[in-house]
Amino acid sequence: MGKSDIEIAVLRHRKARIRELRHMQLLHDATISPPEEINYMERRIYMVATEGNIEAFDELLALGTAVPVLTDITPQGNTIVHLAAIYGHFRLLEHIINHERVVFRNFDPIPNYYQSLLLRPNANGDLPLHVAAAAGHAPAVIRLINYLNQLPRGMQIFLREGRQVEVGDVWVVQNNGGNTALHLALKANHQDVALRLAEVDPRVSFVPNEERASPLYMAAEAGDVLLVARMLISPVPRYEGKSVMHAAIKSKNIEILNLLLVPIRQNLINSRDEEKRSVLSYAASIGYDEGVERLLQEFSNIAYVKDPDGFFPIHSACRRGHMGALQAILQSCPDTIELLNLQGQNVLHVAAECGKNEVVKYILGNEKYANLINQKDHKGNTPLHLATMFWYPMIVHILTQDERVNLGEQNKLGFTALDAAEEWMDLNPTFRERLTWMALVCVGTPRALKLMPYDSFLAPGPQEGIIQSNEMPSAKKYKDRVNTLLLLAILVATVAFSAAFSVTKVPEGETHWYKVFVVS
């Protein structure tokens, strides 16, 4: 059987693609120069460095140039000083550097072209200071700092890709990932090392890495009050990269937040995070109630700052169901209850759409917020419409039990809440969809649409299991069932939550059934 037109076209395309790839490979191979010969470190040198054996190091030196102790590197580009720093052998580190000094004692001053072992980067762009900081070896870091401070200020550091910096800038040298030695110490949670490095050069605390995180940001995020306080002493603060204010909010550390809210740093209140959220919106969204109160105490006007998604801080609190943050905002700025997002939704709309029961109850329980109950958004939807369309039966139940809720309100499509449920409900509805619909029916929610007679959907003739009635099922029929199902749903959710945090004692020899229980 012959090939179809499609098969032929695909085969022709693949052959052409293969020819193109082969041609590109040939061009690439022609431009590659022969690999440079690299002297990888001998095993005995490697063992000396990793074990910190000073006597063995001296024995290797006694062999003369037959064993190039100072010049060989590992496959990752690590020198013997890198290895001593990684493993924390600070006495061997001192011994190696002192030997290097003896070798070049005849040079006074040391020529700028000489690259000290202290300044040689490995394949990742790490200097010995980087690897010592990452490993958290404080004695090694202290000695490296002392030796680096003794080098001539004009000496050049030859970095990857032909870059050069002076020794005086060694503290802000970044590896291939954009990390300084201080970044690496913070990533590994070595506070003592981080404090040492932050004191050497105030600039390094404000250098962002490739992830746009400065050491100051990382310290604030970790909730390290001592380190943040030390970094902020800097006479040359540059708040670049990720917002340090958001980091303080994330750590939920009020001491760090207070350090950042002093008058000389007031401009930080206007910071935005990667999602362009304001400081207050972020605090409200994570439920940091104390932070929300503190921010509003200093800058109440930020409650009226809108995020790019159209949400104000009060909406962020409602969306996440954080009652404390909501109440703090309303206490400081009562009129924020009137704020609408880009969809024209008030806080009750947002809470209903996001399924936040407690927020809905709180708003309904305050008579002064009664005007929100039947308010419509830009599409004409009331909070009841949204709770219905997003299938939150408990909120539908809460709203429909409030006699102030107008069950017959129509949106711009001409739908009541019941119409909306029947418009979007699947023919084989889920439990939540079915329960939402029943919650609407049981309170007599009207329809705006004129429906066909109920009996027109019944099959003719007596059939087992089919209701033989010409009457629409009554609201009374569903009321008790809805209450029972809602109670059941709450119980199931409560039991499931409790089970997730309960450790079952497993009888000896019954581990198989325990595994079945956990998986289920």
Automatic annotation (TrEMBL):
Q: How does it sit in the membrane?
A: Multi-pass membrane protein
Instruction: Keywords in alphabetical order, please.
Output: ANK repeat, Membrane, Repeat, Transmembrane, Transmembrane helix
Give residue ranges for domain PGG. Answer: 476-503
Where is it located? Membrane
What InterPro entries does UniProt report for this protein, alphabetically? Ankyrin_rpt (IPR002110), Ankyrin_rpt-contain_sf (IPR036770), PGG_dom (IPR026961)
Name the residues that span the membrane: 482-503
Q: Where are the ANK repeats?
A: 343-375
**GO cellular component term, pick one:** membrane
Return any one Pfam family short name.
Ank_2
Chief site of localization = membrane
Q: What is this protein called?
A: PGG domain-containing protein
Source organism per UniProt: Brassica campestris
